[in-house]
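Hi R.,

As promised on Friday, here is the backbone we talked about, encoded as structure tokens. Could you run it through your design pipeline when you get a chance and send me back a sequence?
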């Protein structure tokens, strides 16, 4: 008998993080508009993959400390999404050996398109870190990727489900 994986905790955590990110990116855009107001020293260091934040060497020395903190939190949210994607992919790798070759190919193609969407969104977010729409696009791409992976893991053959072809 096929094992059923319990993924609600991973998905719930990722989606809760998404809600926080939406609020954070909106605030980040407003903080960016006030950049250079002399409120801080801007010594925030990026963590991990630095998906959203501008390189520390290009930051204004007068960057608002709240902006630096917001950028750090966005980076942490991105890392959280990436960890969730990695965990779901590992589970999927174990499960898909039971699938027929056509289903594996269809899932692989869909995942490749989702990976491209994440990479494109990441590039947009890096190009203009002060624009919250880039961060929104990136986190939306992560959400679609996680939702697809979770559905694939849960059902075993998500291509038959709506929106997963």
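Update: got your reply. Pasting your designed sequence below so it's all in one thread:
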């Amino acid at each position: 008998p096929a094992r059923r994986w319990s993924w609600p905790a991973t998905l719930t955590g990722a989606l809760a993080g998404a809600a926080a990110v939406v609020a954070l990116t909106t605030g980040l855009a407003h903080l960016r508009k006030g950049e250079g107001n002399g409120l801080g020293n801007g010594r925030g260091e990026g963590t991990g993959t630095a998906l959203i934040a501008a390189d520390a060497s290009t930051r204004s020395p007068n960057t608002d400390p709240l902006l630096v903190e917001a950028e750090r939190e966005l980076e942490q949210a991105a890392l959280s999404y990436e960890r969730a994607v990695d965990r779901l992919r590992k589970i999927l790798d174990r499960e898909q050996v039971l699938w027929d070759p056509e289903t594996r190919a269809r899932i692989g193609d869909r995942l490749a398109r989702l990976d491209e969407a994440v990479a494109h969104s990441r590039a947009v977010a890096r190009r203009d870190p002060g624009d919250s729409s880039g961060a929104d696009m990136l986190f939306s791409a992560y959400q679609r990727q996680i939702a697809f992976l979770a559905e694939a893991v849960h059902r075993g053959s998500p291509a038959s489900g709506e929106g997963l072809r």
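One thing I noticed while checking it: The helical segments are 8-33, 65-95, 101-127, 132-155.

Thanks again,
M.
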